[in-house]
Protein 1
Amino acid sequence: MRSAKAESTAVAAKTKKPGGFSWKTYMRRYGTLYLLLILPIIFFLVFRYTPMAYILLAFKKNSIDPPWTLPWAKNHGFQWFIRAFSDANFISALKNTIFLNLLDLVIGSPMPIIMALLLNELAFPKYKRVTQTVLYLPHFLSWVIISTITLRLFATNDGMINKLLGTAIPFLGTEGNWRATYIVLGIWKECGWNTIIYLAALTAISPELYEAAEVDGAGRLRKIWHVTLPGIRSTIIVLLIMNLGHILGSEFDRPFTLSNKLVEGASKTISIFVYERGIQGSQFALSTAVGLFQSVVCVIFLLMSNSLAKKFGERGIW
Amino acid sequence: MSNMTKVNAAHTKHLKDGMIKSKSTRAGDWIIAIVCFALMLVCLLPIVHVLACSLSSADALVRNDVFLWPKGWNIEAYKTVLTTEKYVRSLWWTAVLTVGCTLLSLALTICCAYPLTYPELKGSKIINFLILFTMYFSAGTIPSFVLLNNLKLLNTPWALVLPNCISVFNVIIMRSFFFGVPDSLREAAEIDGAGPIRTLVQIYLPLSLPVIATLALFYAVGRWNGFSDALMYLKKSSSEKYWPIQLLLYNVIKNSTQTSEQAAQEGFFNNGVSKTIQMATVMFATVPILLVYPWLQRYFVSGVTIGAVKG
């Protein structure tokens, strides 16, 4: 709509020959817009697309020099991929990444929905606003801060939680407990924040539907089940797709700051593997190969889950 | 009750909420309110605990007596942090860095989003695609690291500024907001002879203050809380002076939990003292954000919603 209107006025204003197109007048009119775009485009070319050229590192001899100057790696360039998949540490990092993400998906992603339903049912508007503000708080804390607080609260012998309970549970000391703590802390940090999207979707549900349900004698729970949940179905599915697409993606800060020596078998994810091998250990080729594998699988998963959603009749994410 | 009165009742309920609710509904409301209160406590108590610890004496912390109220009130820990050169420098540097990065990021985000709202701009489709593509496929940690090394940016403060100065997500939010500005305003400005830049400065920016505040918050929180880029890009000990507060805190905690001798080397006499100082540092690293975000709540809620819908 805008394009047709703006274009017609623009064309009328700038061209002398009707129907003709002149670069000179076009640039006089829009040149400044290209000037605005120069710095952002340089940013994306240098810091987003040039690294994509550096992916070539994964197929070359290990070095920190620009990859196009280096000789190819063995096995037709696939030496590092073969090395990665025969490396027990990488396999364990892969398993940990998938396992932790699956736990997040299954336990973590329903939580904001439940919390949003709860907030939606909250009858006192001012109290509701205060609750929301407080629930958004943990989102603004960094994982370094959270892990510092966690160490104080969850330590086995002198942690506050154990002291209050009168127990000595090693919350961060065994692999199973560590995983549980990891998931709980993830929920603590992001659950409130993630309700924002659901709450926005909830406001779009027509109040008439609730009235109709009430007329039919539906109580609170039945209204939630038959009106509220169907009303936010597509939001739930879109967010589920995003999470599925990130099943092999891995955060760095969260496992890295929460990890300790006792639970390395559970806490070393791909991102930490890449950091330790690549940045600490200078194995650039190997860790680039691992990163490339991760990125490619992520894109494939995203495409698959998107088309899956479309099959279910949802609009997907693009 | 006839159906008619029920319908009326339902309507009145929306007008005067709570007036004609049944007893069970009202009980439900109170249960929900109490559950929400419990959730609030879960979010708040850890912070209150840290605050109490930071205001307690070192002995009380070693005895592990402190819960939600300080034992042996004192503000020594805060004094120590504010007189230890390392902490003051890091806090000051993080503040400067955050302000600088936020301003730069905002300017670049506006420069990037605004031209893309002109659909007749040639090449805007391809630019749009190239920008969105980076959201779904990234080269990964190591290629960026090697690039920064080849650009000689490693171990310089620029490594914290440049690689993440534009967030695609924020560009999308900005662009969606610009799209929401009525076309008639732009056309009126154009008829008055204003070029694109003047239209941006005089019409779009004043209307976009809420979204600009939101993005400023997102960028500022991202930089203030930023940890992994500093960890990876500022490895050399010579770049220690550029450590942001998060990295400094991480290293202090890591060292003090490994051995208390190392904590002593850091300049603190015993474990308890170093713990109160850690807690004071946590407060310093937390409070600036906690003071700001509640005021912007209305705005960032709508920002997140736009981003989620259009992204």
Protein 2
Amino acid sequence: MSIAFTVNGEAKRVEVPETATLLDVLRNHLGLMGTRYGCGLEQCGSCMVLVDGQPAHACTREVGTVADRKVTTIEGLGTPARPHALQQAFLDEQAGQCGYCLSGIVMSAKALLDRNPTPSRGDIVAALDKHLCRCGAHQRILRAVERAAATLRNGGRA
Amino acid sequence: MNARSLPASLVDNPRLDRWIHFQPDRTVRIATGKVEMGQGVVTAIGQIAAEELDLPIDRVVVLSGDTTNGPDELYTTSSLSVEVSGGSVRLVCAEVRAKALERAALRLNCSRDDLSVVDGQFLQNGAATGQDYWTVASEIDLTQAVTGTAPVKPASSYRVVGHSVPRLDLPAKLSGAAFVHDVLPKDVLHARTLRQPNRGATLASLDEAAIRRAAARHHLGGELQIIREANFVAFVSPVESVAQAAAAAAPAHARWDNVRRLEPAHQEAAWLKGQPSDDRRIGAWPAPATPPKRLVQMTVSRPYIAHASMSPSCALAEFRDGHLTVRSHGQGMHPLRKNLAPVLGLPVEAITAQHLHGAGCYGHNGADDAALDAALVAMRIPGRWIRLQWRREEEFGFEPVGPAMLVTLHVDLDERGRPADWTTEIWSPTHVQRPGSGSGYLLASEALANPPSDVAPFDPPEERGGGGTRNAVPLYDVPAHRILHHLVMRPPVRTSALRGLGALPNVFAIESLIDDLAARVAEDPVAYRLSILSEPRARRLVELVAERAGWASRGPSGTGKGLGLAFARYKNRAAYAAVVAAVTVQETVKVDRVWCVADAGLVVNPDGARNQLEGGIVQAVSWTLKEQVKLDAEGIASRDWESYPILRFSEVPEMQVEFVDGAGNPTLGGGECTVGPTAAAIGNAVNHALGVRIHDMPLTRERIMAALLKT
């Protein structure tokens, strides 16, 4: 079946069963490999993307449910040469070790900052608590989100 | 310097061109056998090369884990990378710099002493000469063996080493760059496995038709190949979701004989006692003939724990024209190809193994096993790239786990309440079953027609830091110390290396006992420690961390709030770390804050190293409070993040980690130095908070309630 939706600002159309997962479609049909497979059970957050600005686990989300919606992945944020304020803040804090969890965490952080430009530490913890990080970079990640919030409030690149 | 004092990596890989190569784009490629796992080793090695060659770090390209062009440095383990590989790169670069200057001096008809190097350019008495590394590179014979005789720079002149450099690999990873999991070669075939439940289990029947029906039910299209080789089964399809659906359906359609049944008691460390074991005595044996006068005993335990990497293991393999290429996130590519060769019946030279990044593994997880799985499929489908991805339940269910341990201390005290005689008794399965190490095999080899023979397990020797005995010797001033090590021969699950090996349970035991001994003589735990700790570097850390944490104003015991301190030097020869933990205990333990002061000698990349120490603290908090691999009749039962919870953002303590200035001393591996002290500091803090000690990890709600009922 043919499903149309927007990914990172571009209109896309894929021919897949509507029960296919969004993760599978992003990776194997659209070549967007930055959204990671971690568990397939909505338990780790590695696959988090935004659907109409809301965090969604791509590993279980059926692609049929995103028809005509806007999906944002890590590739939609910025590049090493032109990073989004969140990506830059993560670099400034060296917030990460292996980096496998970061795509999903950055997406949840983006959703948070989009709806709440002045989050408290508690707000950030609550927004990221569905994400796992096994390397233990949590405190750096929390500081990075705070730093990005400050940058964005001061007119930094969103 | 003679050849005997060269680092092991240079003895094994003496040719300069194994390590360094001048590239036409005016970069220098430095090769290391150690691999990046998120610990920042590639950046640290790049810093060392940039320093010795007088290059900006952006002219250094680090090639890591490549059997074709890089050195064989075995596995990336035991916090040895900067010491051993970094030490080797330092000597190689110093020597190549000297050779390059020699050639330039000849060309310029000047003395070598007139030349200096700035940004890779050779200056004569400060003036440009038009010569640089790349103009003379073709005249330097890099096929020569390293001599180790060129002088290295004094630490006082460092401008790159010892300064925090951002991780070279992080910008790309923050923009979605590829891990091995994310590489899709043209016409790749996706593969999943059906795992043999245990060694010796035989596949009695497999209903392939039912599996095909299940995979087709999703109308995903794409053919499905089912590869069977004895008791190894793989599902292969150009469509990933078809392979996935087949693997998900397969266990219900497979019947196995000779399945081993486990019992719930097997999951507890207490089960280890009384099992057949290989017993070794280390240290001051025989024990004194006189009976102890003031014997104190304590037993602590740690259960089986998982590496629990964020990415289930994955590998790529292609068999083409008789040559196998494997891409893997394993910890050593040279060992991997050596281990693959006999299983596949290929000469070692017919295999190329290249490292690609994966998620952090913290030890020996499923990475190497996935590489064999991929290779087995690739050998059956020549000419096509195979991407073999383990499922989450497969990673939890079949990776080797960190061994359970039981540690009993028997300590006789002198009349002042100080340890006079100390025996550590340890029960533990082996901590290292890396393939090729003797007792370990690549998992799927056990499922093939001629499985490797069952070899008795053994532990790393003491000169490599030991396994179950790692950190079993206290650094305190104890007149006589001995170890009785019971290496348990047949654990219920496959065990292997996990960050720190036996250090965590051993340090937990030592530091718990020391606190109890202080209480026996009504002394402050810090003062008591200092009274039996004479090594200056150790004393300094204990004093400093106590000061940072405000130890002097520590409150009374039993209030529900606790402050605990612990100290260790990793492997008794690597980095030192002293840790204080502040906890709140109600029904569960919350670690509020952790202070850590460490001495790792010369720290190449301070912020990168701090990141490692912080990560070790978080992991140790998670292990100590939450983690245990659960077993049921069929094997490992905790196969997802619900049944194997780890520390979350809302549970992570505030942290303050600092290094004392150690630049005058050689680098000491630091990546694992915080795990033991953190666990022990938590144990002591909980003891302080409750007025009662919990000896068994994890420190769960049930154990706290049970301990409180006993008071």
Protein 3
Amino acid sequence: MTSAITVTGLRKAFGDQVVLDNLDLTVARGTVFALLGANGAGKTTTVKILSTLLRPDAGDARVAGHDVTRDADAVRAAIGVTGQFSAVDNLLTGEENLRLMADLHHLGRREARRKAAELLEQFGLTDAGGKAVSTYSGGMRRRLDLAMTLVGSPQVIFLDEPTTGLDPRSRRDMWQIVRDLVAGGVTIFLTTQYLEEADELADRIAVLAGGRLVAEGTADELKRRIPGGHVRLRFTDQRDHDKAVRVLGHTAPDGDALALRVPSDGSVRSLKALIDQLEAQSLEVGELSVHTPDLDDVFLALTDDKVATA
Amino acid sequence: MSTPTLTAPALRFHPLRDSTTMLRRNLKRMLRYPSMTVLLIGMPVIFLLLFVYVFGGTMGAGLGGSPADGRAAYANYLTPGILLMTVMSTVQGTAISIAMDMTEGIITRFRTMHIARVSVLTGHVIGSLIQAMLAVAVVTGVALLVGFDPAADLLGWLATAGFVGTVAFAFIWLAVALGQASGTVETASNAPMPLILLPFLSSGFVPTESLPAGIRWFAEYQPFTPIIETMRALLAGNPPGNDLWIALGWCAVIALGGYLWSKRLFNRESKL
């Protein structure tokens, strides 16, 4: 058994609104899989079905080798879920929240205390452990949330937009925690609307739009799917601009009348060649900027027309 | 991680253990949020004082005593109704705390965990039952201070406690369902309002004979009248007779209905 999650032909509709339309995906054990999509693309619905909160209308979904509808209890025993909205008890302290989880996993009293202390330490919450969660910051709350998910040592962890609403530093902390988890052999199913996050963490990325997968692959594979990078040149006057269009050959117009785009792989060598050419023609360039394709380009290119036709 | 496929023993449910854990959680929450409990006990105490000291003289005279000992007589008449009101007040608290819980993510977390699902609800029910019994004890204490003078012996007191516990248990299950059905905390605090007001349309504050025909008919057939009459009889050291069985019948129906409704609500799919 090599895949942690297998989904085939998954469908879900709420009334006549189709949320998931024939979804297929496979997540290998011990990897991070990122499901990327805009708001309303069906990410949370997918997580809810895979974590047994919702029943699919059609299709098969297996998590940790168990069917999510026929064998939901076995799935629940194998997974951990950290959702978009913090699933912590605000009236209890951080430590009490962890002990609550330990009790529900039937750890012994001593083991529960040890595990709670260990997780508080690991997530930088030791000092706050005795304080009520209602006093925690957003980042602390999210860390505690994930720590609670880890009490049961799940094989598969679902992280539904784990960094939405976090400041950059908390986000980076969260990423490091995820990397450590994967190093420990856990499988992670991550949903996010941040391409940077998927790029940083995921082994494989799937782009979801309008309930359908529009692309799947590694970050590099996805980047290769869209037109390459370019150099944007902005001239100080129209005469130079027009001359550059004639001299440089393969250029593309830009939104700005004085600017144009020259295809480029962004390497120093090609930049130097371009600059030499501009100098030889004594063209006055006001601004020069290099654009390499990032996942944002991929995302926008892939989701735009799909959403429009959906 | 070389986690082997889960074996059968790991998948056993522990409803008792999980319920105890959930009960501990709910008791802690009550301690952390004491203003709720104080409020729940405060309301019936205010009604008790209001009725004994403001209306008590006149009401007592209506029961057939002089205004002087009328107040004491009315305190005796009134207390069972106030105690039932105390139970209903804590039941309202149950509905509110269930609704609060449902709006927080932690219930969603519980749903994705391999735990005995009913324990989430039983934890609330047993916690509320403890809260209700404490509240009733406090209000009884205040009633004793303002002139309540029951004739019951120890057995009568124990029977009353057992009976009040049964009534509380039944209505708490109803509140658990109401709290879940409400969707918001605001609705949940209003939904049990009829339970707070129904004692007024029973034999709780005045004998039903003094009511006009329509209301009297309603008062005699609604569940709170036999419940109050049973408490009144037990506290006075009299046999409750038929009222006890009618009251227990109502409790059985309400408890079962509340339990089945709650279970159905809890197992329904989460919304998008």
